[in-house]
Specification:
This protein is α/β, with parallel strands linked by helices and 297 residues long. The protein contains 14 helices and eight strands. A hairpin with a 2-residue loop joins β1 and β2.
């Protein structure tokens, strides 16, 4: 896997986090052998808010304050991402992240009643619930990536990700490219089907320009295995709401339909007009959607 040196070439809180969204809610917590960057804000029922692969707490810059009006929101950087410490490469995996987040919640002495996860973050929430690390009454999956890739993509994704994760040069090469070519990050964001502001793009560029952040994301993809989760979905206890967005080019609505085919108890809500990063495009709309699902309107 990627060398430890690259994995530790991370963002610096004092330098890179000076203007971080919702910085006032940030704290650093030791739990599960890691030093976490986590944001905690608001009061009311506890809501665990998880970002997806290669993102960070910044992705919820607009959504978190709205949710905090009615909930106690707990929003961490996932292991290895942004300002959270990086575990050994083999521990950047679905079941490992679930266990690590369970340790964080115990350290915070908070028990989520609601879970909201974006993309791979939704899979982490479901895994936590299956492992009885959390017992929420509701999980809201925003463009959730819950099913294994199909066809050739599924056949070649994991081997390719493992190859990239072992390459110490690749994260530095891509990070350098992000620093030199801002339009490259813009093109990447556009490919999700979402329309982000220049301000939003600047934070993604900051993340992608961090070799350690990129290396952690590559190792996460290399170790990702959704087959057991898909198999165990019918055993999921919490209510599962699958929110799919019509213009999502990363996890299209058909993926939510695949989940329902496995677990008919899940509900799907299809929303038109937004892409994969809908919670950044219109956080107010997504907040109201979550409140309605949770009975908090």
């Amino acid at each position: 896997m990627t060398s430890a040196k690259v994995l530790q070439d991370k963002l610096d809180w004092e330098r890179d986090g000076a203007d971080w969204p919702n910085r006032h809610a940030s704290r650093f917590v030791e739990a599960g052998g890691l030093r976490w960057h986590v944001q905690v804000a608001g009061s009311g029922p506890v809501l665990l808010l998880l970002h997806g692969t290669a993102a960070s707490t910044h992705s919820f810059g607009g959504l978190l304050p709205l949710l905090a009006e009615r909930c106690t929101v707990v929003c961490p950087d996932l292991p290895g991402h942004a300002f959270t410490e990086t575990p050994p490469p083999k521990e950047i995996c679905l079941t490992c992240m679930a266990s690590q987040l369970g340790a964080l919640l115990r350290a915070l002495e908070l028990d989520p009643e609601i879970g909201v996860g974006h993309s791979a973050g939704a899979a982490v929430l479901v895994q936590m619930a299956l492992d009885r690390l959390i017992e929420p009454r509701l999980i809201v999956s925003l463009s959730g990536a819950l099913m294994p890739l199909r066809g050739l993509a599924g056949k070649w994704f994991s081997p390719a990700a493992k190859l990239f994760a072992r390459n110490s040069f690749l994260p530095r090469f891509v990070a350098n490219g992000a620093r030199k070519d801002p339009k490259g990050v813009q093109r990447l964001a556009d490919s999700t089907g979402s329309e982000l502001t220049d301000h939003d793009i600047a934070f993604y560029r900051r993340l992608i320009a961090s070799p350690g952040h990129l290396a952690a994301a590559l190792n996460m993809m290399a170790n990702w295995d959704l087959e057991p989760l898909a198999r165990d979905l019918p055993e999921l206890t919490p209510e599962l709401l699958l929110v799919a967005f019509g213009n999502d080019k990363t996890v299209p609505p058909a993926e939510a339909e695949r989940v329902i085919a496995v677990d008919p108890r899940a509900r799907m809500k299809l929303v038109g007009g937004f892409g994969h990063l809908a919670h950044e495009e219109n956080p107010a709309y997504v907040a109201e959607l979550i409140f309605e699902a949770a009975g908090l309107r």
